[in-house]
Input
Amino acid sequence: MFRSPGLFSRAWVRRAITAIAVIAVLAVPLGFDEYTNQNLARIGVFAVAVLGLNVVMGYTGQVSLGQIFFVGVGAYVTAYGATHGWNIGVVLVASILIPGVIGLLVALAAARLGGLAIAMLTLALPIVGVPLAKRLSDYTGGSQGLSSAFSSAPEWSGLYNDQWQLYVVLVVGGAVFLLTRNLVRGKYGRAFAIVKSNEAVAASMGISPYRYKVLAFTVASLIGGVSGFLYMAVVQFTSPETLSLGHSVTLLASMVIGGSASIVGSLLGGAYYVLAPQLANHVDPNTTELLQGALLLLVLFLLPGGLVSLPRVIARKLRRNRPTGGADRQQSSSGAPARGRKAVEEAPTMSGIPTGRPE
Amino acid sequence: MTLLELQSVTAFYGPVQVLDGVSLSVPEGGAVGILGANGAGKTTTLRSISGTVRAGGRILYDGADIRGKRPEQVAAMGIAHVPEGRGGFGALTVRENLRIGAYLRRDRKGVESDIEFVLELFPNLRERYKSHASALSGGEQQMLAVGRAFMAKPRLLLLDEASLGLAPSTAMTVYDAIAKLRRESGIAMLVVEQNANLAFRLVDSATVLETGRNVLSGTSAELKGMDEIRRAYLGG
Amino acid sequence: MGQFIQLVVDGLSNGSIYAVLALAIVLVNQATGLINFAQGGMAVFSAYITWLLTEHGLSLILAILLSVLASFVLGALVERLVMRRFERGDPDTAVVVTIGLLTLITGICGWLWTYNNQQFRSLFSLTTVSIFGAAVSIRSIGTFAVIAVIMLFLQALFLGTKFGLALRAVAINPKSAALSGLPVGRLLMAGWGLAAALGAVAGALVAPQLTLTPGMMDTALVYALAAVILGGQSSPVGVVVAAWLIGVVENLAAVYVHFIGYDLKVAVPFILTFVVLVVRPQGLFGRKVVARV
Output
């Protein structure tokens, strides 16, 4: 969002701003009450989950209704490991790798199909996941679920539990955000974008759509696992309900509402996931789903880039209202060289319909 | 008697002007070519007629301005557009493609006899009658596209680059069949073509577009004689 | 042996319900090339309309007919007012829109009629008749018969009528269809309307068994989608056969495969789908689509 060149482009200024931001964020847990800290921690948990979904769906264009399944698996692995006295590092690694391996296996089959089959098959994950979690009661505690208070603040820290948990979320979640940001801005991110926009073009450039879809889906599952670990650290309880289809749909809605293919949008999506039901409950618990559906459609119609694009859209609107808008158009039409025209003539016509996703 | 007349037609794609005052006219039963390089605005001219691109200026068909009409309305008025890339229905059979072309017609018997006419004109299609259009060769798909347009019993056929992607001999077969179709049916034609040699097998007159404007017009004989045409579009 | 036959017949009956919903999905897919995740939610809404009408004293059969009509209109309106904008864009966005619709419609049902279960009368009697030693309910046979008729009707519609041909053409190439004079917008509305009407039938068939709740169709949607993939996405007969197959195999697996049992039988369609798709990516009855670049 910092587009203005000059001051912000200088390396030391940017570094200083980053440092100040990091310090400010790290100070947050100390400054708020328990309720706020818990809410913030939950937002972090689901921001990570939404981020994972964004990798496969926002950046690579493969609709997944199964993301919550990987969050749930991560949470179950964490709960199982923690209650069986595993080392916390082992728990973290297992809670990431096991969902990742499952995701890889699912993707190997689903990505073969292409198109909307991924959406249809991933829908099965929460649908099958819930009864499966109930069935495997030796590991999952069945319908009762599992609780584990492994994330209490250690003595030496002198912190309250909620503060400690928020730090865990900030550090682990922050690391995931940073890694993902690098992934999607790098070589892989460009390949994802090409696969998303046109698989035939990708293939002609030597980018295998299949392999990148599998990769994106696997990364999404890994990140889902991290989110599950954090979920367990913050909520300290998981049950089959955690991975229900309703939650998966809400996660998808959160991603679109926050902002598809956007890092900041993932944060906003996490905030939406946690805060929207709380707000709706104030109105009438029976309207939660209604409001969410309406909001999702509203965003798709009016703000296809999600909440994260709101400042940009407002800025554009303001600019258009100024009289210079018309001049812009004049200039580009009369100034366009013949070669410019050539390029556009092949452009598809009769569309007039936005694809619904910028970038 | 003029069937179609374009008067200073303009068109934009977004902010970019693609047509900058194109004028031409097609007499009843006549065939007119639009020649020009890639990006000159040939395809857009056809699209502005068939209502798939919004246009300025005047587009008179039978004396009435048809600008702003939707593609299906334009089709219902007797203008059949064979789009660039043939616009085939890959998962439909040859027969079904032809029937789609006749969608607006109510005369069952006439439709069947016209299907027979198309199969006479393009014997290849008869052999592939039950196959899916996607299984046809490029030349056969082009024949099918022309056949589909003919099935609408149009008064005017808009033909966009029928030679695209075809081997020279195939393209020639296609054009000769279209010329035969023209002789036997009397349908007026507006033909976009990059390969002027091919176009002259079919059209009586032509106009040359450059960056969205007419730069030259004349009868086929006149144009063939001009040096610049020969250099630019006839390969020598 | 009696148990086996009974399982097969019940499986065919369950499969028939999945099949109606699957046919509705195929219909939309044929007309627009989209997969409508809201199809189940729309069917639930139709079932609520039927239920509301019977609560006001209408006979069940009349209520279903009125609901079918209302659903046709609503389906067409959904296409015109919501989906139209997204149909020609990115298909993934359009799918997200249908997921949004699913949430919205389920939410509307929950808001208007609460999330509590409502009793829904059955169209067919629950008495059983004995066939080869198996007790088969009239309901199973009736459901089966309804779906067989609908399937044949759709197959005839798609392959034998000008309207069906036009629907298919619009799905394949809407721009070119418009150039041939097809009223693309109205055809799309008709496709969605027909699908919603089918959904109303599915809702009326499934509601007595599951009792009416806003989320009633969630699981049926999953089965229907599996049937759509398995049946090859475009062939009505293929999709119905796939749905029957799913219904029968899941019933048999629930009883004869110890690990699966009744609670995990929902996994069966997906295991089945996985196996089939690994062998035949175009589905059991679908034709391979050759994409040209």
Observations:
- Confidence is low (pLDDT under 50) at residues 289-293 of chain C.
- Residues 2-279 of chain C form a domain with the ABC transporter involved in vitamin B12 uptake, BtuC fold (CATH 1.10.3470).
